[in-house]
Amino acid sequence: MPTVTIHPTGEVIYLEPGETVLSGLYKAGFAYTVGCRRGGCAICKVDCRSGQFRYDHPVADTVLTEDEHLDGTCLTCRAVPDTDITIELRGENVRLVNTFLHMINDKARQRAEAHAAAGLMAGTTPKEQ
Fold first, then answer.
1. E strands along 15-100, which residues?
2. For residue 68, which phi and psi values (nearest 5 degrees)?
3. Which pLDDT belongs to residue 75?
4. 77 CB-contact burial (10 Å; exposed 0-12 / middle 13-18 / buried 19+)
5. Best CA proximity match to 29, nearest among 110, 105, 128, 102
6. What is the pLDDT of residues 9-50, one digit of tens each?
7. Are strands 85-89 and 3-7 parallel, antiparallel or unpaired?
8. Do the beta carbons of residue 6 and residue 46 sit within 8 Å?
């Protein structure tokens, strides 16, 4: 179950498997400037500083260039993390707009971490349990 760390604030967001970065951030109570939310406008681009992600739907070359595909540019409305990732927004910061959702997301992240730690302590991976 991947997490998204927001650089430079260090805020950690828990994502469900298969969830997009944008969906996870909104579900955790955060907001920032976005546009169409379907991969057509490129307003939600961020820089992926570490980790791996894939796109769950095709992304047009007019939205992300070949160079952007190679340099870690992430279209958050389409990007689904395969691992924990660290992102940095371009020219703005996320805003916490719903503290209740943030609290729920934090509790879910803590449960997932505890579950993973319990599996490691028992000598198994979470997938083996």
1. 30-31, 45-50, 53-55, 73-75, 79-81, 85-89, 95-96
2. -65, -35
3. 93
4. buried
5. 102
6. 899 998 988 999 999 999 999 988 887 877 778 889 999 999
7. parallel
8. no
Name the band, by pLDDT with cuts 50, 70 and 90, for residue 89.
very high
Nearest to 87 by CA among 49, 53, 51, 55: 49
How much of the chain exceeds pLDDT 70, in percent?
92
Q: What is the pLDDT of residue 122?
A: 63
Place of tokens 């689904």: 80
Residue 128 has pLDDT above 60, yes or no: no
Q: Under 8 Å CB-to-CB from 113, ≥6 apart: which residues?
A: none
What tokens appear for 36 in the block? 């169409």
How many angstroms separate the Cα of 83 from the Cα of each of 36, 42, 49?
26, 23, 12
Which residue, among 88, 74, 101, has the nearest Cα to 10 in the 3D structure? Answer: 88
d(CA 45, CA 41): 9
